[in-house]
């Protein structure tokens, strides 16, 4: 039940998400905010446009946005909703989830390289590099949660998190922090990448899609929004107790995602982008934090006994 | 009867030297087909019959019997060897056409003869337990592959790589000989694997295991024993690199696995040792691969990486046995074993596809390629498939074996104590890193070779290769997809092999629903992509499609071939991080201060193998310094040599007089 509601809410939220970020950023900087559905209108306009393909490209370039979009949509089906499993759930599904997203990313990268542009090469290369650096942090977190909950599926990880032991609350804040920034990196947002930058040399994701247009570009944008909400939902899973009633859970879920969007808006308004060369170190810092989570979990589960 | 046929085949292979160039391939292929039919029949029979082992008396050397013993482990390897050698032979037909003018009938004869004998010797190595027979066939395997490597012997580099390979194989051989002799001497048993059971039951296993590991590890290519690989693979013709990387190095893994079946005590240090040497092989292998520009050298380093993944599976499995965590043991071994099969598939596919590219462009340097997807679309798709599979991405076979290892590790994480958890942590973190780096590397290779604009004249004139060079790859591709979609078909037979290590434990049937779910997800995934494709087609029919040049920041004067991203620039990001392993040196001429009209400047960068530099080259060079000093005795004058002889006799005389000897 919650799964169906969750997926519907996820779809609605993903449409609102970029609007909320834009409104927050406008408010903070004292500008007049756009209508919340403005990003959606932009996308709808893209669907009516003529596609332009570069003569350098091959079918890879045409296939890439579809594969990327499909991988994100399928990944959405794996997300658990607060005590309920996702549409697909099996032991080790979080490994599959990560590898599925990697599959989509693989195609985005070669799609960008297909244009033969050095700008897009740069973006593709950074995307590959950053996601390789961020993977260990994700797996460390999942490993810690598995230890804590004694399950190795997404649904199990989160469902047992809240009532196995109160000590779990020691780990949750750091986990949420790490996950928050994994989200930012996966979606190429601040502080790793600034989507509003106007210099190709310092972009990551935006520069990869310079040559995509119309339908393809729309799919890439929607996939980006979905990804936001997917990670937002994972974060919400840390915070929402699965025992409560469906209505309260739904409200909490919507609330957390809106808060998440506002938070991103605020962070992006006040924080400057990292120096590009410093990004790798910064990303590895997340893995270091995740190792601390792992060790703490070992102590909580009294496998590591300090005296 | 069977054995008689086998012996006849061995003898009949000599006929290859006596037929004309035109028929050599047909003859070799014919012999191989019979060999494959015969040995595959034996192998499959192991699964179908109730006995876990079939024995045939093969030879008798001075009354000492040498038997062929086909158990599950042997038949698993025999089937893998048969499949890859078959595709290798089929691919060779098209690939060797280019050499028809340059090589004479005897050279071709020797090549096919060696290819056949490499096949035969690999099968024999897997099925002979007797020490003499094993070492003999092991040596045969090295010799046969040596002759295959030096096929293009007019090339000096090839000979050098071949000799390097031959020497390293014999170093490995020496370790194996010592290990067998030591085991047999200290437990008073015959030379061979059967004696090991007695040895390991009452000796500490680790030292002897280490000897075996070094001996077999040189063949398998674990870092730092890998230095022959990056030289031999580029030197050999592509079908040979394919089968060497696909199956021959796995015979090293076979040896390690075989030895492991006899060890039942004190497994923990062995497991930890295998795990750590494997994860460093995996990570370093792929990191060094990223720095390479020679496509076949790069693939050779990826073999090292994949040997690392196989080793991680085996190491985790052994640790599971030692710490009594059944799920870790079962899934570790199963994942490692399945990855042996998987790697033999996608690596041979990649080498054959690289062979197509080399044949068409005559260069292995990826910096000179580009845009080949338009010229050779079929090769490109096959290469892409191999790249996705080797990066361990779903829905292909590489993912399944890695998933099994992950599954075991995360399950084991819950059951293990602190010690187990820390080891598992090291295991899955390295697997994650290897996966990410592999994606990084293969996006680079595929993009630089096949996408963008051609970077040189060589790449501009490539054409798609003949179908005879493509269809063997199609077989491999089919298996890659099949294992990816219906892994349960392959996992259940694999269980019998896993049981050799774990006792009665095997992957439970209850894993099947999991893989069925994954298959449903795949179907949905593919369906969604097709649906989107159709939807876009409809949208584009309404709104037309335009074409234009790639967006170039409003500047279109530059040559697109030059302004593209290169392999070096792609690797540069990572270089900042891990140049210790990648070891990239740049050579450039800086501008001088007073240089108003700059002269032409050059820039070059290349990467050398740290391990080869420090473990092989530096010691050899130091030794050479002393040896060169000793060379003053070699004057080339007969009088001096007579004098040496006289002095020697005089020395012996003196020593005898003083009763020293």
Write the layout of secondary structure elements.
The complex is a heterodimer of chains A (307) and B (661).
Chain A: H1 2-28, H2 38-47, E1 51-54, H3 59-76, H4 93-113, H5 118-149, H6 154-159, H7 168-186, H8 205-208, H9 214-239, H10 246-270, H11 279-300
Helix pairs in contact in A: 1-9, 1-10, 2-9, 3-4, 3-9, 4-5, 5-7, 5-11, 7-9, 7-11, 9-10
Chain B: H1 2-12, H2 21-48, E1 53-61, E2 64-71, H3 72-95, H4 105-127, H5 131-149, H6 156-187, H7 193-202, H8 205-220, H9 229-235, H10 238-260, H11 267-290, H12 295-322, H13 326-361, H14 372-375, H15 377-390, H16 397-415, H17 418-450, H18 457-460, H19 467-485, H20 488-502, H21 512-543, E3 545-548, H22 560-563, H23 567-582, E4 584-588, E5 603-607, H24 610-630, H25 638-657
Antiparallel strand pairs in B: 1-2, 4-5
Helix pairs in contact in B: 1-2, 2-3, 2-4, 3-4, 3-10, 3-13, 3-19, 4-5, 4-10, 5-6, 6-7, 6-8, 6-9, 8-10, 9-10, 9-12, 10-12, 10-13, 11-12, 11-17, 11-23, 12-13, 12-16, 12-17, 13-15, 13-16, 13-19, 13-20, 15-17, 15-19, 16-17, 16-19
Please bin the fraction of helical residues of chain A. 55-70%
Structural class of chain B: mainly alpha
The biggest beta sheet of chain B reads: 2 strands, antiparallel
Going by helix content, strand content and strand pairing, the class of chain A is mainly alpha
Number of strands of chain A: 1
The chain pair forming the largest interface, with residue counts per chain, is: A-B, 77 and 78 residues
This entry's quaternary arrangement is heterodimer
Inertia-based shape of chain A: globular
Strand order of the largest sheet of chain B: 1-2
N-to-C SSE string of chain A, H for helix and E for strand: HHEHHHHHHHHH
Q: Mind summarizing the main beta sheet of chain A? A: none
SSE arrangement of chain B, N to C: HHEEHHHHHHHHHHHHHHHHHHHEHHEEHH
Transmembrane segments (chain A): 59-82, 94-113, 137-160, 167-185, 218-239, 251-270, 282-306
GO molecular function (chain A): lyase activity
Subcellular location (chain A): Membrane
Membrane topology (chain A): Multi-pass membrane protein
């Amino acid at each position: 039940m919650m799964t169906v509601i969750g997926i519907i809410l996820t779809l609605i939220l993903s449409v609102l998400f970029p609007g909320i970020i834009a409104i927050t950023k406008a408010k903070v900087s004292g500008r007049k905010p756009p209508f919340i559905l403005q990003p959606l209108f932009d996308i709808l306009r893209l669907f009516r446009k003529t596609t332009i393909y570069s003569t350098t490209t091959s079918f890879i370039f045409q296939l890439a946005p579809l594969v990327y979009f499909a991988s994100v949509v399928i990944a959405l089906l794996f997300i658990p909703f607060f005590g309920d499993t996702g549409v697909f759930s099996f032991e080790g599904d979080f490994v599959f989830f990560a590898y599925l997203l990697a599959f989509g990313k693989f195609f985005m990268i070669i799609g960008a390289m297909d244009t033969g542009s050095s700008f897009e090469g740069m973006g593709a290369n950074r995307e590959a590099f950053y996601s390789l650096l961020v993977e260990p942090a994700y797996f460390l977190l999942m490993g810690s949660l598995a230890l804590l909950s004694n399950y190795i599926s997404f649904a199990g990880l989160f469902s047992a998190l809240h009532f196995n032991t109160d000590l779990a609350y020691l780990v949750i804040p750091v986990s949420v922090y790490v996950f928050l920034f994994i989200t930012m990196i996966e979606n190429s947002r601040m502080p790793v990448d600034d989507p509003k930058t106007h210099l190709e040399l310092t972009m990551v994701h935006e520069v990869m899609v310079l040559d995509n247009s119309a339908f393809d570009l729309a799919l890439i944008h929607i996939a980006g929004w979905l990804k936001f909400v997917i990670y937002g939902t994972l974060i919400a899973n840390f915070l929402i107790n699965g025992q409560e009633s469906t209505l309260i859970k739904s409200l909490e879920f919507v609330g957390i995602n809106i808060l998440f969007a506002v938070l991103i808006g605020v962070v992006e308004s006040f924080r400057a982008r990292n120096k590009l060369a410093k990004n790798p170190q910064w990303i590895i810092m997340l893995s270091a934090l995740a190792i601390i989570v792992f060790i703490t979990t070992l102590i909580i589960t009294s496998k590591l006994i300090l005296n | 009867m069977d054995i008689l046929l086998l012996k006849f085949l061995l003898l009949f292979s000599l006929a290859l030297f006596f037929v004309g160039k035109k028929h050599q391939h047909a003859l070799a292929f014919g012999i191989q087909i019979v060999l494959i039919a015969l040995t595959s029949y034996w192998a499959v029979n192991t699964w179908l019959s109730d006995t876990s082992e079939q024995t045939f008396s093969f030879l008798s050397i001075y009354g000492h019997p040498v038997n062929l013993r086909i158990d599950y482990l042997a038949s698993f390897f025999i089937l893998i060897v048969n499949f890859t050698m078959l595709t290798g032979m089929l691919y060779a037909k098209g690939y060797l056409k280019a050499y028809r003018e340059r090589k004479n009938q005897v050279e071709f004869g020797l090549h096919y003869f060696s290819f056949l004998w490499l096949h035969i010797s690999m099968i024999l190595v897997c099925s002979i337990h007797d020490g003499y027979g094993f070492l003999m066939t092991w040596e045969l395997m090295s010799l046969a592959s040596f002759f295959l490597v030096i096929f293009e012997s007019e090339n000096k580099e090839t000979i050098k790589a071949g000799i390097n390979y031959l020497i390293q194989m014999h170093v490995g051989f020496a370790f194996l000989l010592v290990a067998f002799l030591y085991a047999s001497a200290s437990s008073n048993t015959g030379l061979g694997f059967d004696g090991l059971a007695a040895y390991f039951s009452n000796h500490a296993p680790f030292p002897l295991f280490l000897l075996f590991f070094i001996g077999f590890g040189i063949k398998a290519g674990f870092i730092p024993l890998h230095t022959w690989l990056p030289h031999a693979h580029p030197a050999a013709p592509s079908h040979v690199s394919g089968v060497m990387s696909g199956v021959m190095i796995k015979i090293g893994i076979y040896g390690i696995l075989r030895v492991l079946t006899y060890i039942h005590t004190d497994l923990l240090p062995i497991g930890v040792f295998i795990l750590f040497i494997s994860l460093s092989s995996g990570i370093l292998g792929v990191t060094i691969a990223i720095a390479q520009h020679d496509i076949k050298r790069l693939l050779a380093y990826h073999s090292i990486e994949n040997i690392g993944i196989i080793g991680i599976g085996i190491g985790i499995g052994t640790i599971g046995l030692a710490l009594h965590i059944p799920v870790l043991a079962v899934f570790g071994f199963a994942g490692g074993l399945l990855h042996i099969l998987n790697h033999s598939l996608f690596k041979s596919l990649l080498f054959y596809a690289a062979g197509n590219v080399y044949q068409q462009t005559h260069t292995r340097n990826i910096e000179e390629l580009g845009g080949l997807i338009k010229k050779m679309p079929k090769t490109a798709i096959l290469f892409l498939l191999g790249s996705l599979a080797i990066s361990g991405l779903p829905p292909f076979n590489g993912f399944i074996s890695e998933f099994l290892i992950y599954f075991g590790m995360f399950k084991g994480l819950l059951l293990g104590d602190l010690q187990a958890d820390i080891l598992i942590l090291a295991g899955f973190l390295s697997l994650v890193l290897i996966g990410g780096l592999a994606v990084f590397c293969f996006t680079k290779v595929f993009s630089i070779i096949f996408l963008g604009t051609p970077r040189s004249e060589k790449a501009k004139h490539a054409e798609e290769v003949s179908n005879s060079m493509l269809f063997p790859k199609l077989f491999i591709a089919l298996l890659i997809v099949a294992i990816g979609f219906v892994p349960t078909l392959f996992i259940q037979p694999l269980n019998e092999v896993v049981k050799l290590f774990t006792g009665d434990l095997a992957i439970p049937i209850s894993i099947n629903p999991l893989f069925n779910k994954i298959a449903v997800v795949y179907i949905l995934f593919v369906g969604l992509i097709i649906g989107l494709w159709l939807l876009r087609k409809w949208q584009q029919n309404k709104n037309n499609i335009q074409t234009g040049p790639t967006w170039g920041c409003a500047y279109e004067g530059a040559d697109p071939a030059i302004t593209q991203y290169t392999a070096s620039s792609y690797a540069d990001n990572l270089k900042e991080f891990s140049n210790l392993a990648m070891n990239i040196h740049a050579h450039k001429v800086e501008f001088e201060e007073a240089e108003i009209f700059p002269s032409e400047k050059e820039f070059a960068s290349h990467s050398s193998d740290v391990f080869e530099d420090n473990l092989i080259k530096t010691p050899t060079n130091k030794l050479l310094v002393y040896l060169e000093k000793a060379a003053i005795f070699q004057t080339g004058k007969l009088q001096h040599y007579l004098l040496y002889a006289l002095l020697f006799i005089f020395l012996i005389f003196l020593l005898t007089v003083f009763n020293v000897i």
